[in-house]
Amino acid sequence: MKIALLSRNPKLYSTQRLVEAAQERGHEIRVLDALRCYMNITMNRPSVHYRGEELALFDAVIPRIGASVTYYGTAVLRQFEMMGTFPLNESVAITRSRDKLRSLQLLSRKGLGLPVTGFAHKPDDVEDLIKMVGGAPLVIKLLEGTQGIGVVLAETPQAAESVIEAFMGLKTNILVQEFIKEAGGSDIRCFVIGEKVVASMKRQGKEGEFRSNLHRGGTASLVRISPEERSTAVRAAKTMGLNVAGVDLLRSNHGPVVMEVNSSPGLEGIERATGKDIAGMQIQFIEKRLEELHTSRSNPSKTRGRG
Ligand code: ADP
Q1: Structural domains of the chain, with CATH
Q2: How many angstroms separate the alpha carbon of residue 213 from the centre of ligand 1?
Q3: What is the pLDDT of residues 79-133, one digit of tens each?
Q4: Are 60 and 283 in contact (CB under 8 A)?
Q5: What would the pLDDT profile of 246-289 be if each residue is shown by its tens digit?
Q6: Which of 103, 204, 213, 258 to mutate for ligand 1's pocket (most ligand atoms within 8 Å of CB)?
Q7: Cα separation of 62 and 287, whole Å?
Q8: Distance (Å, rounded) from C-alpha 61 to C-alpha 211?
């Protein structure tokens, strides 16, 4: 197969591992910086150019698109899709999952467990907003934050009110969420490929820290997940339309709750914690999907009616 890997940095662990895994299986793989791709949007022959060259057709494309370049990155991915290249994750699914509010609304519509969550932009009655989500302690999040930055725990209604007011001054969307204290500063990352959780790890925040992000000094360890956690993670990925996803769950008193569904989950933490070849599993998934696509194209009657 010929595979394109959209990644801004060939030196990143995840990028390197995917390159290695593809080559080990005898595939040709090329790392492309999506921001450097330029495109011709014509109806009869869409193309992608890169450093003065028109790219030949790829069989598959693996998008690893950073949050800050979602808009242009997904446009490039869409161009590959228009050219008939199979995307490991589709552009629409990535766009959907990058919008936190939209994601939470979709997940709740499918009946998945979520922390009680409110969102607001410029509420006139902050007290009522706090009451609406069950009162303090509350977690207040800036929607644009990543890696735990802009996530604040307010232990009292007064603290909640002043944090909300401060965030409102930034003229941004905010999310106000029930604090899942019983999670004890940890969360569970489930790595989903296809309809399976292929690996999972527990991330624990450092002493006294409720945020478990590895970037904030958290540590990762192996964990056994329950059947309910497994099915929640798979359903969450499916709801977003992602073939590959990192689903973050909190263990609450009322069962697993979904915190986030990540469309470009990193490989370093999870491969190191579990010792599994998750890069290889992604390549295998692409092999399988392409084979199915070829079979259905060469023998359409066999698959007709499957929907
Ligand atoms: P980011 O996307 O910036 O990493 P998250 O929403 O994932 O932000 O929050 C960072 C961390 O804070 C999570 O990994 C989790 O450990 C903790 N956390 C977030 N929301 C809650 C909550 N409602 N209750 C308890 N802990 C939470």
Answers
A1: 2-88 (3.40.50.20), 116-179 (3.30.1490.20), 182-276 (3.30.470.20)
A2: 8
A3: 999 999 999 999 999 999 999 899 999 999 999 999 999 999 888 889 999 999 9
A4: no
A5: 999 999 999 999 999 999 999 999 999 999 999 999 999 999 99
A6: 213
A7: 12
A8: 33
